[in-house]
From TrEMBL:
Belongs to the enoyl-CoA hydratase/isomerase family. Keywords: Lyase. It comes from bioreactor metagenome. This is 2,3-dehydroadipyl-CoA hydratase. Its EC number is 4.2.1.17. GO terms for molecular function: enoyl-CoA hydratase activity.
Length: 85
């Protein structure tokens, strides 16, 4: 999921946003939270600090229950039930 995925006419903006929101509902809430925090922080730090912060965020996600749920759901061919933990 990129930061800028498409450009739409103003009249289609609401529909396009709702489509993105529908996709995001199926993503892990913890990973979305970490990504949002990193994006906001990236505005105020240099590249090296940003990369370090990204590495720390990745470490948090690797140690999460949601990571295990995502792996198990993939192996069991089912939708994940993320808990944000």
């Amino acid at each position: 999921m990129g930061l800028l995925m498409k450009v739409v006419p103003f009249e289609e903006l609401h529909s396009a946003v709702m489509g993105v929101v529908a996709e995001m509902r199926h993503k892990g809430p913890l990973s979305l939270c970490v990504a949002k925090k990193l994006l906001n922080a990236a505005l105020d730090v240099d590249l090296n600090a940003g990369l370090l912060m990204e590495n720390l965020g990745f470490g948090v996600l690797l140690d999460s229950e949601d990571k295990l749920e995502g792996i198990n759901a993939f192996l069991e061919k089912r939708s994940p039930a993320f808990q944000g933990k």
